[in-house]
Specification:
Strand content: 5-15%
Membrane topology: Multi-pass membrane protein
Number of helices: 17
Bound molecules: uridine-diphosphate-N-acetylglucosamine, magnesium ion
Distance between the termini: 27 Å
Catalytic activity: a di-trans,poly-cis-dolichyl phosphate + UDP-N-acetyl-alpha-D-glucosamine = an N-acetyl-alpha-D-glucosaminyl-diphospho-di-trans,poly-cis-dolichol + UMP
Subcellular location: Endoplasmic reticulum membrane
GO cellular component, one term: endoplasmic reticulum membrane
Structural class: mainly alpha
Strand order of the largest sheet: 7-9-8
Number of domains: 2
Number of strands: 9
Helix content: 55-70%
Largest sheet: 3 strands, antiparallel
Low-confidence stretches: none
Mean pLDDT: 91
Transmembrane segments: 6-27, 56-77, 97-116, 128-144, 185-204, 211-230, 242-261, 273-291, 297-317, 408-431
């Protein structure tokens, strides 16, 4: 790695370290102010249900944005001062400033949305799509600066496809083959920016998990960025991944400090503010770094949690306000929490659709949920809430809160490493090409 590559990494590491120390210093000094203005929550998985300051994620998020402001004159100083070094292609030329500022704008917007959610407890269906608005600056800059909306078709699919079609002059276009998704690609990137923040927020409810999964994602993203920066075979991919590495190193710094206070037993809650903010940093990296498909690959545990949650999120199965595991005061362990299928949270009788019953029984047979049956008529009374957290408890039996968090983070880390291998080894074999190496 040359000095030119090292400079932005050194700057972001110093920024990340300052962000870490500032967050570590500030949280204990201001968290009681949050309680005073009503920003607190009860730690539901403890015996005495202590009152804990909430929305503390606003502190690392604000520090992160301030660090981004400070980065601008340092990272872009050569172009700002018009220092001309034609032989050296540096990573932060003036045209990149637009990308950088669009990320700042997007992250400021999501910070506002997160704080609004923590203040007013917005309804799930109202807040779900809002991150897409925050992502508009990113998508506009992507359109102007890069604008690539094509996806590569794996050669084997192309070959299968060509065997079924008569050969025409159009079929002998040289390989590789692409499909231009046009506006569909922008819709897809909008979906990534909706998904990343929300998916972190719904894989939550255990001390340390929201920040822990952010830290694991940071490590996975950094390994991937590092592979490109050290081994990338073209300059364009190195440039894309440098922007991502700079943002992620700083996110890692502030998140490590937040984790210090949020880990079991939590002294602060991060709030939806942090979940949205962290998710949006990853979406920014994926979109501006031109690897939004790989970004989703790194979110596999969150994707599983989301798909598994769909029946509850979209009302096929009742969804209680909290789906976090149930704390048992007698043994201090967490058990899978349940959704009552006969009575709702207001105490009214409910009936779930026959199709939902069939689906629940199928999931039960596959050991993907646990059902409680009425002893007299065999009717299904309740099901375990459909979250990855509860599923792990269904499979492993009750666990202490910190052990449960560690187990989920370990699974996430292993899946993340496998995703990197899949992306660069299996992906390279399928596409016969990767930006790290070419398969002949
Ligand atoms: C999401 C989940 C919800 C889960 C909640 C936990 C969906 C659709 N929503 O809702 O099921 O219960 O996150 O964050 O899946 N809390 C703890 N311990 C923790 C973290 C949070 O007890 O380690 C409790 C506190 O009472 C805190 C509250 O959860 O005040 C925060 O919940 P909130 O973030 O507002 O829930 P949602 O994000 O709406
Ligand atoms: Mg939340």
């Amino acid at each position: 790695m040359d000095a030119n590559t090292g400079f932005p990494l050194i700057v972001s590491t110093i920024s990340g370290a300052i962000g870490y120390l500032a967050t570590l210093w500030l949280i204990p000094r201001v968290s009681q102010q949050f309680v005073k203005i009503g920003l607190f929550g009860k730690d539901l998985s403890k015996r005495d249900k202590p009152i804990i300051p909430e929305t503390i994620g606003a502190i690392p998020a604000t520090i992160f944005i301030l660090m981004m402001f400070c980065d601008i004159p340092i990272l872009f100083y050569k172009d700002l001062l018009s220092i001309k070094e034609p032989a050296v292609v540096h990573f932060f030329p003036h045209r990149k400033l637009c990308e950088f500022l669009s990320a700042v704008l997007c992250l400021e917007s999501i910070l506002l949305l997160g704080i609004a959610d923590d203040l007013f407890d917005l309804r799930w269906r109202h807040k779900f799509f809002l991150p897409a608005f925050a992502a508009i600056p990113l998508l506009v800059v992507y359109y102007v600066d890069f604008g690539v909306t094509t996806v590569t078709i794996p050669p084997f699919i192309y070959k299968i496809f060509s065997t079924f079609k008569p050969t025409t002059s159009a079929m002998i276009t040289p390989f590789p083959q692409f499909i231009d998704l046009k506006w569909g690609y922008y819709a897809y990137m909008g979906c990534v920016s909706i998904f990343c923040p929300n998916s972190i927020n719904i894989l939550a409810g255990v001390n340390g998990l929201e920040v822990g999964q952010t830290i694991v994602l940071c490590i996975i993203f950094l390994i991937n960025d590092g592979l490109f920066l050290i081994n990338g075979i073209n300059e364009a991919s190195k440039h894309s991944h440098m922007m991502s590495a700079v943002l992620i190193i700083q996110l890692l710094g502030v998140s490590l400090a937040l984790y210090h206070y949020n880990k079991f037993p939590a002294k602060v809650f991060v709030g939806d503010t942090f979940c949205y903010f962290a998710g949006m940093v990853f979406a920014c990296c994926g979109i501006l770094g031109h690897f939004s498909k790989t970004t989703l690959l790194f979110f596999l545990p969150q994707i599983f949690n989301f798909i598994y949650s769909v029946p509850q999120l979209f009302g096929l199965v009742p969804c209680p306000r909290h789906r976090m595991p149930k704390f048992n005061e007698n043994d201090g362990l967490l058990y899978p929490s349940r959704a009552n299928l006969l009575i709702n949270e207001k105490g009214e009788a409910i009936r779930i659709k026959p199709i939902a019953k069939v689906m629940l029984k199928l999931l039960y047979l596959l050991r993907l949920i646990d059902l409680e049956f009425d002893e007299k008529n065999g009717e299904v009374k309740s099901c375990t809430n459909m979250t990855l957290i509860n599923l792990i408890l269904v499979w492993s039996g009750p666990l202490r809160e910190d052990k449960l968090c560690q187990r989920i983070l370990l699974i996430q880390f292993i899946i993340g490493l496998l995703a990197i291998v899949t992306r660069h080894v299996i992906g390279a074999f399928i596409f016969k090409h990767d930006n790290l190496w070419t398969i002949i």
